[in-house]
Amino acid sequence: MIVRYGFFLLLFAVLVFEGTVYQVFAPDFYGFPYSLIPRFLFVMIVFAGIYRGRGYALFYGILFGAVYDIVYSQVLGVYTFGMAFFAYILSMPIPAIKRSLPLTVTLIMVGFILLEYFVYGMMILTESTELPHNMFLYNRLLPSAVMNALFITVIAHPLRLWFEYIERHQNDF
Amino acid sequence: MSPFFSNKKLIVLLVCIILLVALVGYSTSDRKTLTWPEQLVQDSVGTVQSAFSRPAHLVAGFFGNIQDIRNVYEENRILKSQLDDYASTQVELEELRRQNEELQGQLDLEEDLFDYTSRSALVIQRSPDRWNEQIGINKGSQNGIEENQAVMTSKGLIGKVDQVSQFSATVQLLSDTDVTNRISAIVSSDETIQGFIEGIDEETGHLRFSKIDMEADLEDGQTVSTSGLGGVFPAGLEIGEIVDYENDEYGLTKTAFVEPSAEFYHLDHVMIVDRSASALEEEIDPALTGEDDES
């Protein structure tokens, strides 16, 4: 049970966490000048894709992208497509990347930046925002990238151990 | 490693892009209600969100209380100085209220645009990507929440109900920059000055109060409140104070900047306002009497 559905439940908890607990304690509400956007869900999906294969990234990307769209966003389809597509093309199950933490983090951050730009473009297109590009870049994208990179660096090791544990026990079922 | 896009994958990708465009087009058209799969997902996630956000609000409230205790002395001093005014205002208010009731009784006015009832709800989520300023509440159509109802905190108006599902709903805050986010408002002074609250100025954090008559006498510090003229909002809900104004880009109307009286952060409990007065009197509502007044 915990082996099979554990990661799904973890991702769901992270999805809820981003919108509830994080928003209550969000630093920009307490006077922090930059907005830190949590993309923990997406970086974890890309991480899972790198370690467990493209199929996982695609499946979780579509599933949680759709839920994200319905619950947190006004425009349907943006995150369903964005999360699934970028998680899919960036899940490169190459041993050299798997072994090196800096390479993994870099790859995930590339995914993060691509997703942010994609969503920014869609928001401009649907006239949901008038945020100028330099504000987007300096107040939002770069600080958020630093925070998400730190997040994935911290949880990379426990997650990797968990994935190895799942691989070992998969044959028990 | 296989190439990224073999022919088959390319076709799947193209179909996905077409689906994306179709979905975006569907959801940006002004549809009124959510489809049942959306309601199902929103309600079930909403249940889990309530479980997460209650303790978070408790912890945040605890730290807020500590902050409050440190300010108690200063606050007490200010409040005491205001107390003298309060007594005389109270007497005046009573007198005016009695007079008002009497006059309304003479005119047979039973309900007006100022009457409303309110329900309270817990804020369970806030959109984490910050592209839209939207919060979720734990009451839905089963609790009598309807679309476009006004939402306020004790300090003033914060937004309107956007999408309603069975047991939860989303609220679009006044600070949302969406083009359809528009609220009819008035300035209370000697003459009535009308206009629309349309989104927020990103840099200063002031609400834009636009489409004001060129002739209107605006002053800093005037209070802006809802007019009750546009749809389902009651009149007299406080929005904020004017801090600045200018002529708009075409020189035809004025735009004022309003410092909102409610803050849009740290929301835990909100009130959803239900106007008691119906939008139109029955005898003049063409939809009810069936007359066509195209002439």
UniProtKB/TrEMBL annotation, chain A:
Primary location group = membrane
Q: How does it sit in the membrane?
A: Multi-pass membrane protein
Listed GO cellular component terms?
plasma membrane
The answer to whether the entry has keyword Protein biosynthesis is no
Q: Which GO terms describe its biological process?
A: regulation of cell shape
Bilayer-crossing residues are 7-25, 78-97, 104-125, 145-163
Report keywords, A-Z. Answer: Cell membrane, Cell shape, Membrane, Transmembrane, Transmembrane helix
* Domain of life, per lineage: Bacteria
Family, according to the entry, reads as follows: Belongs to the MreD family.
What NCBIfam families does the annotation carry? shape_MreD
What's the protein called, per UniProt?
Rod shape-determining protein MreD
Naturally occurring in which organism (per UniProt): Salisediminibacterium halotolerans
What does the record give as the organism's lineage?
Answer: Bacteria, Bacillati, Bacillota, Bacilli, Bacillales
TrEMBL record, chain B:
GO biological process terms, alphabetically, are:
regulation of cell shape
* Record keyword Coiled coil present: yes
What InterPro entries does this protein map onto?
A: Cell/Rod_1, Cell/Rod_MreC_2, MreC, MreC_beta-barrel_core
Q: Name one Pfam family in it.
A: MreC
Annotated coiled-coil positions are: 79-113
Question: Which segments constitute the Rod shape-determining protein MreC beta-barrel core domain?
Answer: 123-273
Q: Which UniProt keywords apply?
A: Cell shape, Coiled coil
- Keyword set includes Iron: no
GO cellular component, as recorded:
plasma membrane
Under PANTHER family, the record lists:
CELL SHAPE-DETERMINING PROTEIN MREC (PTHR34138:SF1)
Which NCBIfam families is this protein grouped with? mreC (TIGR00219)
Instruction: Please report which protein family the annotation says this sequence is part of.
Output: Belongs to the MreC family.
Q: What does this protein do?
A: Involved in formation and maintenance of cell shape.
Q: What is this protein called?
A: Cell shape-determining protein MreC
